[in-house]
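Predict structure. Chain length: 152.
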Amino acid sequence: MNPPLDNHANRNYLAYVSSFAAPTKHFHNCLRAFTVGGGICCVGQFIRVMLENWAHLAGDELAGTVSAVLIFLGCLLTGLGVYDRIGKAAGAGSIVPITGFANSVASPALEFKAEGLVTGLAAKMFVIAGPIIVYGVLAGASVGLIYYLVGL
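Prediction complete.
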């Protein structure tokens, strides 16, 4: 039988441990994440407006091109080491947009490129993003099948 927990000792221990921990600045962190994430989205909107006006794209072509440009920029900034610094400053604000997904694919690929093209770069590229892709494909296929069976 386990002895009963001593709440007084437990509280003392938690107070002792928390005295060494740096205080977290929740509001400041949320503000930075919101600012950087919003900034990335503003860059995406700027690219969209420029492609609408200069290349006269619309609809799916416009959406696909903007996504491709943002993915390219995310991979480029990851390769240059800039996106990691943005991520340290912004936290979740750099993860949420499509550029964060590009970063999660490019980072492991760059880390394991020394192991070879197939066993390093290609095999490790989807270590982080792989489960997300698998879940997205399965969820999309499931919803599509349900819509097909229901007849919508």
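Summary: The two ends are 59 Å apart (CA to CA).
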